[in-house]
């Protein structure tokens, strides 16, 4: 459809130069996605700047994850990261290296959550389309980030199969490398907030779009290292700037989940007003089950422990994964 429209518009330009500006505008509107509208996709970047972070979402991007070739560990790491900082992680999605999927997921999550992290799809190959897709989805341009390129040249080393590679000579290899430093750019905003360098040992930037989408690589070591480096920048924006996070109390019980369900139902109703969640998790290779209290009001949760232990005939677990050894036989 776009190709027919493009041909028609260009034909009009040739026939009538006086309508050139109108035609050019119509052509751009047809082939360029609309800018992010506040009414449809949430607050603008200006409105998000400095906003307190309460909620988060995570988008894992990659055909290799969906195809079973790669096991995703980044979402688990990010979940623990959010828990430790007191951020309420609301959603994790795994999507394909597909432009429409990336645009839809990042737009939706940017509108719904305070912090959005993406993982994957920012390498040098043809299927690494995260940067261009997000740029298109938010009406941004892809622009070579000079500082990122300079850091790449200084800190990266050529692959052993690329001994003749030169940063100064145009080549397919150089073009491929440049894909990793051509970032979504909002020309109306300062560049310093759109690409964060959080680790002096890494040239890889964290590209920031719409003030709340943080685009990270899929390589677990890099993903984790960059998140650790990002933490000091997030702390001032947390509800608790000390980053004390969420607290978890675990109690192991030898009783079946069906036996303790009535008690837990009543307990959950009683503590909900204090922001405490009650959970129950079976231990398949053990004779025990684990009940958890999760929340930020540590003294209140500690006060519930005697009642919980009595109600489910259980014992507290101080280290996650260590059930009551007396129940294992």
TrEMBL record:
Report the InterPro entries cross-referenced here.
Answer: FLAD1_M, MoaB/Mog-like_dom_sf, MoaB/Mog_dom
GO terms of biological process kind: flavin-containing compound metabolic process
Write out the GO MF terms.
FAD diphosphatase activity
The record ties this protein, via SMART domains, to: MoCF_biosynth (SM00852)
Taxonomic superkingdom? Eukaryota
What transmembrane ranges does the database entry give?
Answer: none
MoaB/Mog domain residues are 57-237
State the PANTHER family in the record. MOLYBDOPTERIN BINDING DOMAIN PROTEIN (AFU_ORTHOLOGUE AFUA_5G11210)
Q: Any idea what this protein is called?
A: Molybdopterin binding protein
Give the source species.
Answer: Xylona heveae (strain CBS 132557 / TC161)
């Amino acid at each position: 459809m776009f190709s027919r429209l493009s041909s028609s518009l260009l034909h009009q330009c040739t026939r009538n130069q006086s309508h050139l500006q109108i035609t050019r505008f119509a052509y751009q509107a047809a082939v360029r996605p609309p800018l992010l509208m506040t009414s449809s996709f949430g607050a603008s970047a200006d409105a998000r700047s400095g906003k307190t972070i309460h909620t988060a979402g995570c988008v894992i991007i990659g055909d290799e994850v969906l195809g079973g070739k790669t096991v995703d560990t980044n979402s688990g790491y990010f979940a623990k990261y959010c828990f430790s900082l007191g951020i309420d992680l609301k959603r994790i999605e795994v999507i394909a290296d597909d432009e429409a999927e990336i645009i839809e997921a990042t737009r939706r999550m940017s509108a719904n959550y305070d912090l959005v992290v993406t993982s994957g799809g920012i390498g040098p190959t043809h299927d690494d389309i995260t940067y261009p897709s997000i740029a298109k989805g938010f009406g941004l341009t892809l622009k070579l980030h000079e500082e990122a390129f300079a850091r790449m040249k200084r800190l990266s080393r050529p692959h052993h199969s690329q001994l003749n590679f030169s940063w100064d000579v145009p080549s397919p290899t150089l073009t491929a490398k440049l894909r990793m430093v051509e970032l979504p750019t909002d020309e109306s905003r300062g560049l310093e907030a759109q690409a964060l360098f959080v680790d002096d040992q890494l040239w890889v930037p964290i590209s920031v779009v719409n003030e709340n989408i943080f685009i990270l690589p899929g390589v677990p070591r890099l993903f984790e290292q960059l998140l650790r480096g990002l933490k000091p920048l997030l702390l001032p924006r947390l509800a608790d700037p000390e980053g004390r996070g969420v607290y978890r109390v675990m109690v192991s019980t030898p009783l079946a989940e069906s036996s303790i369900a009535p008690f837990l139902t009543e307990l959950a109703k009683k503590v909900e007003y204090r922001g405490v969640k009650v959970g129950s998790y079976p231990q398949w290779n053990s004779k025990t089950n684990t009940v958890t209290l999760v929340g930020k009001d540590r003294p209140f949760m500690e006060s519930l422990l005697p009642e919980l232990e009595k109600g489910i005939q259980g014992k507290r677990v101080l280290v996650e994964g260590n059930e009551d050894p007396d129940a294992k036989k």
